[in-house]
Amino acid sequence: MIAAILLFALAADEGWEKLKTVKSGSEIRVFLKGKAKPIEANLGDVTDESLILGLKNEQKAIAKDEIDRVDARPGGRAGVTRESKTTNDVTNPQPPTPPNPYNRPGPSGSASSGISIGKPGYETVYTRPRPKP
User: Fold this and answer.
1) Domains, the chain, ranges and CATH?
2) Which of 68, 88, 103, 114 is 20 to 30 Å apart from 4, CA to CA?
3) Letter string b/e over residues 81-94, b meaning 16 or more CB atoms within 10 A of that residue's CB
4) In this structure, what is the dihedral angle of CA atoms 57, 63, 65, 69, given to the nearest 10 degrees?
């Protein structure tokens, strides 16, 4: 019985220790007990008893036992995706029946390019262990 309690306590601390490895200033979401909407903030510090968040103009400490789950964005730069597209089309090989100076026969084509910048998704870092019945 005591071994099961110790194993349960070690598993709970393992998740909290993983949270301690997240860099200060990282974007996180904190899900609190009984709240549907998470708190989105920057990570300030993680102690054994609480999590300190950096909000817009203040810092807020949340006790460990009030937290259900913590998600964090992985470190590194935002993802950049490049896209380019070129098409060649021969849609007008014959001259038009009535001559139109703007509709000349021959191949046509188009080209486009662009980039998109996006943040990586959140990853769950800590989940409060559920008590076993």
Assistant:
1) 2-78+120-127 (2.30.30.100)
2) 68
3) eeeeeeeeeeeeee
4) 30
Side chain identity, residue 113: S
User: According to the model, what pLDDT value does residue 7 have?
Assistant: 42
Among candidate residues 24, 41, 14, 34, the one with its CA nearest the CA of residue 125: 14
Token pair, residue 82, equals 């490049």
| Average pLDDT value for residue range 70-80 | 74
**With 0-12 CB in 10 A as exposed, 13-18 as middle and 19+ as buried, what is 103?**
exposed
Distance in angstroms between the alpha carbons of the first and the last residue of the chain: 13
Look up the pTM and report it.
0.60
Res. 4: pLDDT tops 80: no
Residues written for the chain = 133
Contact present, 53 and 41 (Cβ < 8 Å): yes
